[in-house]
Design brief:
heterodimer, A: about 70% helix, B: about 325 residues, 4-stranded antiparallel β-sheet, 11 helices, about 60% helix
């Protein structure tokens, strides 16, 4: 009988420390709240989109933390799809912002207040 | 969770964020930084108090790394939403991404940590910086000699936004960390065993990797002529013990000898291998859909970028009093006809 000696590295399947998960989740909800504040208070359209990216980060952090807590990979797989959607959103949103900037020569979202009618 | 401490710390954080929104003298800024970091530390201590410690962890210093990373991330995020100059705000977002990816590393999500660095900090943020610099060229009338435009210096409805964020933070914090909501923060032995068994099943889906790993182990014991793995009576390559910590399998030599071998957890697939396997095995349709989304975004960006060039030219000519190039009557507003 041959047995592989433990290499002294972190074994892949040890339960996570609850305090670590809790700190990470606290960070996630704080980042989400700050991203919300940024989205509401910023007037620059690009920075409003950047604040939504901050909220994406918070969601990704929560996914990974819960995945680690349940020792499941689905959380990390969701983050891959978050990255995909964020990349697509960045490309399209920035294209639109450049389009709007060329029209009015300003990045202020209030220059487009007429759209709300 | 210590509810009162949590609410007080969140309110302190909201006040600090409000004060950060206007430009302040340096000493005041330093005091604000200290207050804000204290608020975050208080939230963390309200949340992570009395957490059970697994026996395997012992005295694990990773908790303090988590706390420091959280402080860096929150400081970067607060500066990002309040900085008057957009390019600096984008660079502070890079700091947040760095902190989050360190956090991913600590949570044993190595692939996601580096994917985040490469995709976010390397690609998405560069796109944002490009557009920011494109849109903030000199001659922007909204600057009027200041170092940033008025709409970057004046927040919109900060008090309402902060009250909303405070309510949201309190509600989510309460839902997550309330003492009696019985979240199983510490994974039970059943969960650990299930995760381990799943990891071994994943290993079994990769027979070549399994053969290579076990042949390498056998070689350290002096057996070098491994031909293949023998299937057990149930048709499976490996048999996992109920707790999932070890798995045993049988190697066949070229001359027909059988060598039983036991693998422990360190032989299980590493994060990126397991993630790739899970992505293809569990979510193949989502993976294809993600590809379609990216392709559509590419098409959309190309269509948007191509279409507006002529119109912008027309607008400029109209503003300068020149006749439009595209002078059809219905198009005279340069609209999206």
């Amino acid at each position: 009988m041959i047995t592989l000696a433990s290499m002294g590295s972190v074994a892949p399947m040890t339960p996570a420390m609850p305090a670590n998960i809790q700190v990470t989740l606290a960070l996630a909800i704080i980042l989400f709240a700050i991203g919300l504040v940024g989205f509401l208070t910023r007037r620059n359209m690009i920075l409003m989109f950047l604040s939504t990216e901050l909220m994406f980060q918070a969601a990704a952090l929560a996914f990974v933390a819960f995945g680690r807590m349940w020792m499941d990979l689905s959380g990390q797989l969701m983050v891959i799809f978050i990255l995909t959607v964020a990349a697509a959103e960045a490309a399209l949103a920035l294209g639109l912002v450049v389009l709007l900037y060329r029209r009015k020569e300003t990045l202020s979202s209030e220059a487009w207040a007429e759209l709300k009618e | 969770m210590n509810a009162n401490l949590f609410y007080a710390a969140a309110a302190l954080g909201a006040v600090v964020l409000y004060l950060m929104m206007e430009p302040r003298p340096a000493a005041f800024r330093a005091a604000l930084t200290v207050c804000g970091l204290a608020a975050v530390a208080l939230i963390i201590s309200a949340v992570a108090r009395n957490a059970p410690v697994p026996e395997a962890a012992g005295t694990d210093p990773s908790f303090w790394v988590h706390v420091m990373v959280a402080l860096v991330a929150v400081a970067g995020a607060a500066r990002m939403v309040t900085h008057p100059r957009p390019v600096y705000a984008a660079l502070y977002f890079v700091l947040v991404i760095l902190a989050v990816s360190v956090n991913f590393l600590l949570l044993q999500a190595e692939f996601m940590a580096f994917a985040l660095l490469i995709v976010y900090a390397g690609a998405i943020l560069i796109t944002y910086l490009f557009v920011l610099m494109l849109a903030q060229q000199s001659g922007d009338q909204s600057m009027r000699g200041e170092e940033s435009a008025w709409y970057d210096r004046t927040p919109r409805e900060p008090i309402a936004a902060l009250i909303l964020a405070f309510i949201m933070l309190s509600a989510t914090g309460d839902a997550l960390f309330r003492r009696d909501n019985s979240v199983p923060w510490l994974a039970s032995p059943a969960v650990v065993a299930r995760a381990n068994i799943r990891a071994w099943e994943r290993m079994e889906d990769m027979p070549e990797l399994l053969l290579r790993e076990s042949a390498a182990i056998a070689e350290t014991a002096g057996i070098s002529d491994i031909a293949k793995l023998e299937r057990g009576a149930d048709g499976r390559l490996i048999s996992v013990d109920p707790s999932g910590t070890t798995a045993s399998l049988t190697l066949l030599s070229t001359n027909g000898d059988r060598h039983p071998i036991t693998l422990d957890g360190t032989a299980a697939p590493a994060n990126s291998t397991a993630l790739g396997h899970a992505l293809v095995a569990q979510f193949p349709v989502s993976l294809e859909l993600a590809g379609v989304i990216l392709l559509m975004a590419l098409f959309g960006a190309v269509v948007l970028a191509r279409r507006q060039m002529a119109m912008a030219e027309d607008e400029r000519r109209a503003a300068a009093g020149l006749p439009r190039i595209d002078d059809g009557g219905s198009l005279s507003r340069g609209g999206a006809a």
